[in-house]
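Work Package 3 (structural annotation) set out to generate three-dimensional models for the target panel prioritized at the project kickoff. During this period the team completed the workflow that converts sequence records into discrete structure tokens, so that structures can be stored uniformly alongside our sequence database. As a representative example, we reproduce one entry of 119 residues exactly as it appears in the project archive.
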Amino acid sequence: MQTAQTVRLTHHRPFALEPHVRSALLAAAALLTILDGVATYIWLGLGHAEANPLLVALIHAVGAGPAMALRIAVGLGLLAALGGLSERARLAPYALVIVTGILLGVGLWHGYGVVLTIT
């Protein structure tokens, strides 16, 4: 006589961030967002062009300073939303890590460009 085995399914969250890690990633992403906006503003002031067509349109509409301030504010708002989601949405921790990595890459790229232009 065969016995039926009971399979117990549990909710497993494959990638959860500890609160201090989430906070550190959010702080790093926020700092990188601000630095990216400042570096872009400096870049534009040195006579270079912005590659993002949405920012180009905004810069033409309101000027470089207000456009970068708005870009930073929107970026920080999106990070705040992602930070809130990272506690309960399954894919949000992945997105937070990816966004922070992308911001780091963009920040290094802009910083490198500004340093090369200044020197």
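The CA atoms of residues 22 and 83 lie 7 Å apart.
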